[in-house]
Design goal:
Strands 1-2-3-4 form a 4-stranded parallel beta sheet. Strands 6-5-7 form a 3-stranded parallel beta sheet, with helices on one face. The protein is α/β, with parallel strands linked by helices and 260 residues long. The chain has helices at 2-15, 25-39, 45-67, 82-95, 112-118, 133-136, 176-183, 218-227, 242-247; strands at 71-75, 100-105, 124-127, 143-146, 166-171, 192-195, 228-231. Helix 2 crosses helix 3 and helix 3 (45-67) packs parallel to helix 4. The chain is 39% helix and 13% strand. Helix 5 (112-118) links the parallel strand 2 and strand 3. It has 9 helices and 7 strands, in the order H-H-H-E-H-E-H-E-H-E-E-H-E-H-E-H.
Length: 260
């Protein structure tokens, strides 16, 4: 959501307040997810996510039809079904409105295969891993650019004198491999803070009462990092095989979200 907020602010500064309209996709996803979890408590986390993204996709297409923009800029639209991009392209053709479809993808290299499917309906792509740029545009004919993750000087800054009152800190989605690692540790006598989304999974083991589930403010997380003696950077393996990538003779980015 911070990426959305900063991008919206930047576009408004560049183009003018009256030229840019924001559609809070993140808020709509949360709304549809919470509403359906109340109505259908039997639904799994994956089912709730699927319904939430599908409903939000319909909202987006309706907004495009209503506002008729010159440029659509989607941030991390990877979980939307292909149909939403197809519908936007159909709407562009039927209304004879030549607007540009631009998308910033933030889940590379984990989701490259699906992103390539979506890219058929996109005019301008921004990806967060420079090693996959050629996968989308091997002939160099399309607009695909590497855009690394950045930081805000107003949020991400060191405080040398801050008290280091947290022994160990981690923030991230609780994939199975991470849960398995953390459950191997005896945390008795250690002041540990584990923050992250359960992603619809049930957390079991000795960290079940330690992990704090949720979405956290960027500034709050930055402060946790500053207060920590040790910050764990446990790379995920869910969704990608580094061995296969290396076997193809390509460089695998062990963590494209880190500032390089």
């Amino acid at each position: 959501f911070d990426v959305f907020a900063y991008s919206l602010s930047s576009f408004r500064q560049l183009l003018g307040e009256d030229k840019v309209r924001g559609f809070a996709t993140h808020n709509m996803i949360l709304y549809h997810r919470m509403a359906n979890s109340t109505i259908h408590p039997e639904m799994s986390g994956d089912e709730l996510n699927r319904v939430a993204y599908t409903r939000t996709a319909i909202d987006i297409v309706s907004e495009v039809y209503r506002t008729r923009p010159d440029i659509i800029y989607i941030i991390d639209g990877i979980l939307f079904p292909v149909s939403v991009y197809r519908e936007i392209c159909t709407l562009r053709y039927e209304t004879k409105r030549e607007f540009l479809i631009a998308v910033r993808f933030t889940e590379e290299p984990y989701a490259t295969e699906y992103t390539k499917v979506l890219s058929r309906y996109i005019d301008l792509l921004f990806v967060n891993d420079k090693n996959v740029v050629g996968d989308f545009d091997p002939e160099g004919n399309h607009c695909v650019y590497y855009v690394p993750h950045s930081y805000s000087e107003d949020v991400h800054y060191p405080i040398r004198s801050i008290e280091k009152d947290v022994d160990v800190f981690f923030c991230g989605t609780m994939y199975g491999e991470r849960v398995e690692l953390f459950n191997e540790v005896d945390w008795n006598g250690i002041n540990v803070k584990l923050l992250g989304s359960f992603d619809g999974n049930r957390i079991e083991g000795n960290i079940a009462d330690i992990v704090i589930d949720g979405t956290f403010d960027n500034g709050q997380v930055a402060n946790w990092y500053r207060r920590s003696k040790i910050a764990i950077n446990k790379h995920r393996i869910t969704g990608i095989s580094p061995g296969e990538i290396i076997g193809e003779g390509r460089t695998y980015s062990v963590n494209p979200r880190m500032i390089e």
